[in-house]
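Good morning,

Attaching, inline, the C-alpha cells for the sequence recovery test we're adding to the shared suite. The designed sequence is right after.
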C-alpha cells in the first residue's frame, strides 16, 4: 500500500473574479472548493491512475470533516488523526493577477501527535510512504527527519517533496525520488539559474548526496530526471496553463505509482510528466482521461 502524509491539509477555496478592483465589492464568476495539501493531491492523482493509497495526516473541526467527507466521496481511504483545532482554509483569488492567501494551520498537542505516530506501527517494508508539504506550526523543525529516520530504520521505502532544510536532511536516508523545482534547487545550493541547462550539475548532486532519483520541474521549460546513470530531459508540452497548483504533486504520484509497478525510471518519468502537465492544463487535479491524453505527447531525450 502507498501511504501519503499530509501533516497540514487545507481546504482550497478558489474563486474567480474577472476584474478585481481593491476596495470595491465583486460577484464571483466561478468557485471551486477542494481538499488541499500536497499529500492529498498525490492520493487524488494515484486514484486517477488506478492506484490505491491511504491518506494520513491531521484534521480538525468542520473543515477537517469536509476533507474527510470529500476523500470518502472520491473513494480514497484516509486515516487522519483528529485534532481539536480546525483544519486551515487557503483562499486563491483568480483574476487578472492571481492572489493566494494562506493560513499557517492549526497546532497539535503531544497526545495528538502520539496518536498519529502510533498509526505507523502497521506500515511494513512492503508498503511505501510519500511525505510532502508543510508541517503544523507547532511541530519541531526536525519532525520530518524523525519520521524519515523511523521509516528508514524499519526498511520502509519513501519519497519526499519537502522544503530546503528538510530535503537536505532526508537525502542521507536515500529517498526513492525527490522533486524540487528549478527555483528550489537554486535555493538548496545557493545559486541563481538563467537557463535550465545550468541546473544539470546540481540535479546530479542531489543524487550524489543520496537521492535514488531526482525530478526537477522547470516550469515552461519542461522537466529533468536524474538517476545514478543518466540525465533525461522532457521538453514542455504545448497547451494553456489553467492551474499550476498540484502539478508537482501529480508528478510525484505519476513517478511513484509507475515505478512501484514497473521498476522502470524512464517510464515512471514519462507518466510523471503526463500527470503534471494534465493537472497544469486542468482547473483541478487531472482526471484519468486527461492524463492518458498527455501520455502520447511526452517526449524523453537522454542528454547524458
Amino acid at each position: 500500500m502507498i501511504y501519503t502524509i499530509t501533516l497540514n491539509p487545507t481546504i482550497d477555496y478558489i474563486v474567480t473574479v474577472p476584474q478585481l478592483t481593491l476596495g470595491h465589492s465583486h460577484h464571483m464568476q466561478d468557485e471551486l472548493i477542494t481538499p488541499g495539501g500536497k499529500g492529498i493531491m498525490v492520493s487524488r492523482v494515484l486514484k486517477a491512475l488506478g492506484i490505491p493509497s491511504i491518506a494520513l495526516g491531521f484534521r480538525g473541526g468542520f473543515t477537517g470533516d469536509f476533507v474527510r467527507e470529500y476523500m470518502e466521496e472520491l473513494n480514497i481511504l484516509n486515516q487522519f488523526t483528529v485534532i481539536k483545532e480546525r483544519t486551515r482554509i487557503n483562499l486563491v483569488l483568480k483574476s487578472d493577477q492571481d492572489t493566494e492567501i494562506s493560513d499557517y494551520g492549526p497546532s497539535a498537542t503531544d497526545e495528538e501527535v502520539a496518536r498519529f505516530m502510533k498509526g505507523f506501527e502497521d506500515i511494513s517494508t512492503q508498503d511505501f510512504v510519500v511525505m510532502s508539504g508543510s508541517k503544523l506550526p507547532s511541530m519541531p523543525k526536525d519532525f520530518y527527519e524523525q519520521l524519515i529516520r523511523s521509516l528508514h530504520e524499519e526498511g520502509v521505502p519513501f519519497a519526499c517533496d519537502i522544503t530546503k532544510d528538510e530535503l537536505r536532511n532526508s537525502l542521507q536516508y536515500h529517498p526513492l525520488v525527490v522533486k524540487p523545482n528549478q527555483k528550489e534547487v537554486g535555493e538548496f545550493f545557493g545559486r541563481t539559474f538563467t537557463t535550465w541547462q545550468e541546473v544539470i550539475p546540481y540535479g546530479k548532486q542531489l543524487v550524489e548526496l543520496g537521492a535514488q532519483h531526482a525530478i526537477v520541474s522547470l516550469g515552461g521549460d519542461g522537466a529533468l530526471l536524474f538517476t545514478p546513470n543518466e540525465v533525461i530531459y522532457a521538453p514542455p508540452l504545448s497547451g494553456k496553463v489553467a492551474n499550476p497548483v498540484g502539478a508537482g504533486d501529480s508528478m510525484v504520484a505519476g513517478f511513484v505509482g509507475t515505478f512501484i509497478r514497473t521498476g522502470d525510471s524512464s517510464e515512471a518519468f514519462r507518466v510523471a510528466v503526463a500527470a503534471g502537465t494534465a493537472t497544469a492544463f486542468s482547473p483541478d487535479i487531472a482526471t484519468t482521461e486527461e492524463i492518458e491524453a498527455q501520455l502520447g505527447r511526452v517526449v524523453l531525450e537522454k542528454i547524458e
